[in-house]
Amino acid sequence: MPAHLRDDAVPHVRPGALYTSNPRLAEDEALLGGVVAAVRAAGAQVLRRFPPAVLPADRAQVVAAIHANDAVSLKSLRPALTAVRPRAGWVEDELDTGALPPGEWWVTDTVEGNINHVHGIPDWSVTAALVREGAPVLAAVHEPLTGHTFTAVRGGGAHRDGLRLRVSAKTALDGAFVGTGQARPGEDAATLGRIAASTVAMLPRALVTRVSVPATTQLVYVASGRMDVFWQYSDVRSGLVAGALLAAEAGGVVTDVWGRPWDASSPDFLASAPGLHAAAVDVLSGVR
């Protein structure tokens, strides 16, 4: 078990599958180069379309631009990842939820933060995660605009361009930079209510509360120690699995908002620096 989840380090947490040992660590690390090459190549294709020459004027144009970006990225990303792991399944719907069937699966977001891309906003990336028996074992997130690539292998740590990542060392919520956001348009009224209520609950407790998209950008910030806490009321896999592994391998605590072990079937999500996790759970577990 990683040191940051020893019983004496975060005693209120029961670690989940993200923190189990990885007997195939060497094998997974050997795959990483191909996965990095795949997300970088796809990112280069989408970068050619940024910034958009014309911003969308209505919802139909937004949707059309998003689909066009996805198609360009997918055309590059899917064959490249299939070559890395030919027998792994492919999750067709980026908005799919819940646990995956047994075996290995590629969970990708061809343009994570696509809504930002089509509006000329720089917070977007290309992500890929290999999920084995329900838990991510390898992840790569490429930010074409910065040129940075964030990687993690379960049991092997998290890195940015080869440099080790560590989460924040903060221990007081009143000094914390925290964030949340929507997983997708058209959330039901109950989910929107929880997003609103949790933001209201966190505003007086944290130093600054950010509400933004996409989730992966904020999870990269948590893994890098730039943000301290991120939560989301969602089980959309593609926006969480890569970032969850990055945050966990950077020393963060990843659970649901009640502090229970997180997996792809969990209805909500929390990633935090270890010293802030109990306080974050205290705030969020009171939201109905």
TrEMBL record:
Keyword Magnesium on this protein? yes
Superkingdom of source:
Bacteria
Gene Ontology terms describing biological process: inositol metabolic process; signal transduction
Q: Which cofactor does it need?
A: Mg(2+)
Residues engaged in binding Mg(2+): 109
- InterPro entries, alphabetically? Inositol_monophosphatase-like (IPR000760)
State the name under which the record lists this protein: 3'(2'),5'-bisphosphate nucleotidase CysQ
Give the species: Streptomyces typhae
Which terms does the record give in the GO molecular function aspect? inositol monophosphate 1-phosphatase activity; metal ion binding
Q: Which UniProt keywords apply?
A: Magnesium, Metal-binding
Report whether Signal shows up as a keyword of the record.
no
